[in-house]
Amino acid sequence: MIRVLIADDEPLIRAGIRMILTSADDIEVVAEAANGHEAVELARRHLVDVALLDIQMPVMDGLTALAELGRTALGVRVLILTTFGERENVLRALRHGGAGFLLKDSAPGELMGAVRAAAAGNAYLSPAATRHVADSLAAGPAEDRGEEARARVAGLSGREREVLELLGEGLSNADAGRRLHMSEATVKTYVSRILAKLDCENRVQAALLARDAGLGR
Q1: Measured at the alpha carbon of residue 207, what is the angle toward residues 148 and 149, in degrees to the nearest 5?
Q2: Is pTM, for the whole model, over 0.85?
């Protein structure tokens, strides 16, 4: 079972999300929070696998709670849930280790799919969030992020840089394998090694770092 925490300051929103998720046989909602502070405490108490965090909450917002959870050793996968699609929020969530970004008007199937993807260690972006990320990447990286990113990728081997570049282009493991004439399993091994070396939570973070470093354009 995938253990899920829902954090939103609106009880009706929490109830709706709970109803959708509990209709799945493999998902269990184990805790609900009305603000980010409660979410962090309940995540510790209930050892959740996935946390759905609203951005706009009192006491502590969802992005701050995401950063707090990232400083723990709980391994909670965080999906940011919001009615807003601002580019800055999407990128901030992903750069702080968020496993994905969903708009509140997402279809029930999309919500369940995102939770399953996060629990499996994958990243999920709603189509709207993907557009915002693409727009931001097209505008180019800030210079300070670019310098930091280039320094971080400098320690990668030549083959690791090639794989990272393809992550930056958004290729799947299978597509990257075909491009590099490698098996999908070998690419997956390289991706795991790259994430560890770059201290990235997921492949989306690594892809953003690749783009900041000027790879995968």
Answers
A1: 5
A2: no
Let me know: does 153 contact 161? Beta carbons within 8 Å.
Answer: yes
Distant-in-sequence, close-in-space partners of 176: CB < 8 Å, separation ≥ 6: 163, 166, 167, 182, 187
Contact 8, 81 (CB under 8 A): yes
Q: What is the dihedral of CA 80, 204, 148, 82, to 10 degrees?
A: -20
Helix (H) or strand (E) holding 7: strand 2-7
pLDDT at 58 over 90: yes
149 three-state secondary structure: helix
Residue with tokens 């990272």: 164
* CA R_g for the chain: 17
H or E element that contains 125? strand 124-125
**CA 48 – CA 60 distance, rounded (Å):** 19
Q: Where are the alpha helices (DSSP H) in 96-183?
A: 108-119, 127-138, 143-153, 158-168, 173-180
Of 84, 80, 98, 61, which Cα lies nearest the Cα of 132? 84
- Between CA 140 and CA 211 the distance in angstroms is 8
Supply the pLDDT for residue 85. Answer: 55
Q: Longest C-alpha distance within the chain, in Å?
A: 51
